[in-house]
Design brief:
Layout: H1 29-52, H2 58-80, H3 83-117, H4 123-127, H5 141-172, H6 177-190, H7 194-209, H8 216-240, H9 244-252, H10 257-284, H11 289-294, H12 313-322, H13 328-360
Helix pairs in contact: 1-2, 2-3, 3-13, 5-6, 5-8, 5-10, 5-12, 6-8, 7-8, 8-10, 9-10, 10-13, 12-13
């Protein structure tokens, strides 16, 4: 019996070819080109600024460096990897530059607010109001309380209305004239200026209580007008994502439609709906113009939404910065501290939305 010896497998050799010769740039190549482009751009601007006796233009250095990097990465990738891969790297570089540009104002605002707001971020700021305070001292307890009360009341008004409107549009009125009319009105309300909502709420309360009325509930109505279209749109999109198979399965078991919505549709979309509601609250909590018209401003504590003026953080920031006394630094420091507090409240709302979305998201595993 003849046996055929197996063909010996050639031993694998080491990586004799580099990335350049194998038609692919090494991973460090884009970063090296970026450093090279920024270094060349910095050298050019240093020479120009030294010759002209001007300051080093940071913005110009970054822009020229980014353009030079895009040119270098495209040319080198086209030579080594081909036109298709070169264009992919070029588009990736453009997207990365756009992301960096978008992050510049965000980081700048955060650094500025934190750096200047910490000067008055103390216990007195959170435990006292501005009643009887001229100059240094005082705090924003009345403004924080007013912001939470007015925003909470606006949420209690707008969330049920917006959620039930979205349920009607998705579950009952998709092809009806009323549904199309409501969708059109919601689209119009989404784009109205905030000052118009404030004037609407003021006009309504002026007809009831007389001209010159200022109260917290009027500010809540104005914010609710701004919140309702956002809640409707976000809830509508989340309800639309619920598979029809879940509804049909419930109908096949004899479950009525209203109970299917309560027990199947809403629990499935509750995570996205909660996120949209939190974003709507974060959108209106920093509004100044409607609250300035409807709730006014005051230096004293007011816990009653239906009685008298009520201070809020946006109006507090405006009043402290616009009507500076002596010394002006005290007023500016209070304004920056209030701005930092408002940002922290919005951040806390977004964190709550993420936690709720994670906890109540439908579980896909067994």
């Amino acid at each position: 019996m003849t046996t055929i010896a197996p063909t010996p497998t050639p031993a694998r050799t080491g990586s004799a070819h580099t990335s350049l010769t194998s038609g692919r740039l090494p991973r460090w190549a884009p970063w090296a080109l970026l450093v090279l482009a920024l270094a060349v751009s910095a050298a050019v601007f240093l020479l120009v600024s030294a010759a002209a006796g001007t300051e080093f233009p940071i913005a110009g250095w970054l822009v020229v460096g980014a353009v030079l990097y895009l040119a270098l990465i495209y040319v080198l990738s086209r030579i080594v990897e081909g036109a298709r891969r070169a264009f992919d790297r070029f588009v990736t570089g453009i997207v990365s530059c756009a992301f960096a540009i978008a992050m510049v104002p965000l980081v700048s605002v955060a650094v500025t607010v934190i750096g200047r707001g910490l000067a008055r971020f103390d216990g007195t700021f959170f435990s006292s109001s501005m009643r009887g305070i001229l100059g240094e001292g005082g705090g924003a307890l009345h403004a924080i309380t007013g912001t939470l009360l007015i925003t909470g009341a606006a949420a209690l008004i707008s969330i049920p209305i917006g959620l039930m409107t979205a349920i009607y549009l998705i579950e009952y009125g998709q092809n009806s004239r009323l549904g199309r009319a409501i969708t059109f009105l919601v689209d119009v309300m989404t784009g109205i200026p905030s000052i118009v909502a404030g004037l609407f709420a003021y006009a309504v309360f002026a007809l009831i209580f007389g001209p010159g009325v200022r109260m917290g509930i009027a500010g809540a109505i104005a914010l609710a007008v701004l919140m309702i279209p956002v809640v409707v749109r976000s809830s509508e999109e989340m309800l639309r994502l619920v598979p029809n198979e879940l509804r049909e399965a419930a109908y096949a078991l004899g479950v009525p439609k209203w109970l299917t919505i309560v027990k199947v549709v809403l629990p499935t979309s509750i995570a996205g709906i909660t996120t949209g509601i939190m974003l709507a609250i974060a959108r209106v909590i920093g509004e100044t113009a409607p609250l300035l018209i409807t709730a006014g401003f005051t230096d004293s504590m007011n816990y009653d939404l239906g009685d008298g003026r009520m201070q809020t953080l946006p109006v507090y920031i405006y009043s402290q910065y616009a009507y500076q006394g002596i010394p002006p630094e005290a007023y500016v420091d209070r304004a920056w501290a209030a701005a930092l507090t408002l940002i922290l409240i919005v951040m806390a709302l977004n964190l709550v939305a993420r936690v709720v979305a994670k906890v109540f998201a439908p579980k896909t595993g067994r």
